[in-house]
Amino acid sequence: MNITIHPSWKAHLQDEFSKSYFNELIGFVKQEYNTHQCFPPGKEIFAAFDHCTFDKLKVVIIGQDPYHGVGQANGLCFSVHDGVQHPPSLINIFKEIETDLNTPYPKSGNLERWADQGVLLLNATLTVRSHQAGSHQKKGWEQFTDAVITTISEQKTGIVFLLWGGFAKKKIKLIDTNKHYVLTSGHPSPLSANRGYWFGNKHFSKTNSLLETNGLEPVAW
Questions:
Q1: Can you tell me which residues form the catalytic site (predicted)?
Q2: Can 100 be counted among the known catalytic residues?
């Protein structure tokens, strides 16, 4: 199992890779992938970073755990491979985009198209055991992804952070809100969305307005 991250990120995260917790984490992940079915596939663990390079980064969306069903997770939060049925949270994301931007509901749930435009789709935990939600939490991934958020906050300016739900909102403590934009709302999961905490947040049009204000290309959501 070969775990590599895009060179543009490697330069900024080198210190993390040399820490003992990270070596222990990688040992754990390799053991899990050798002895259990785990997701996403090994080569896609760092796919969020491969598609959204550090230089192109302009938006961050924070998720919690990869999907744990067979064939779903592709290394980007909320995203699934082409041809995979859209999970409930993704359906609600697409419904909000549909009404917010007056665009048709997309056929593909593969969000690589967002990542390639500079949207980092970051799960707090990057791996999971098949059909066991949260099984790789508290093994070191959260320390690593917190360091990613902190690095972005310190080394970039004008990034739009989208924090959806209670878990993601806690990450605001890692973000310098004086030089970045933070938009918060309920989570797109049915439990939250059906209570009125998701629909109508207009995060996609608001994000594009902020990007354009800074002279950046809007995202084709």
A1: 65
A2: no
CA distance 156 to 2: 29
Q: Which helix (H) or strand (E) holds 64?
A: none
Q: Would you list the DSSP string of 155-182?
A: H-SS-EEEEEHHHHHGGGGGS-TTTSEE
Residue 215 CB burial class (10 angstroms; 0-12, 13-18, ≥19): exposed
What are the residues whose beta carbons fall under 8 Å from the beta carbon of 19, sequence distance 6 or more?
none
Does 31 score more than 90 pLDDT?
yes
| Active-site hit among 15, 50, 65, 146 | 65
**Please, where are the H alpha helices in the chain?**
7-17, 20-35, 47-51, 88-101, 112-115, 141-155, 165-169, 190-193, 203-213
The CATH code of the domain that includes 73 is 3.40.470.10
pTM above 0.90, yes or no: yes
Is the pLDDT assigned to residue 1 strictly greater than 70?
no
Mean pLDDT of 140-158: 98
Joined together, the tokens standing for residue 91 give 């359906």
Reduced to 3 states (helix: H, G, I; strand: E, B; else coil), residue 49 is helix
Q: Do the domain assignments include residue 220?
A: no
Compute CA 32 distance to the chain's CA centroid, rounded to the nearest angstrom. 22
Domain that holds residue 204: 7-214
How many structural domains compose the chain? Answer: 1
Residue 221 lies in a domain: no
Banded model confidence at residue 143, pLDDT cuts 50, 70, 90: very high
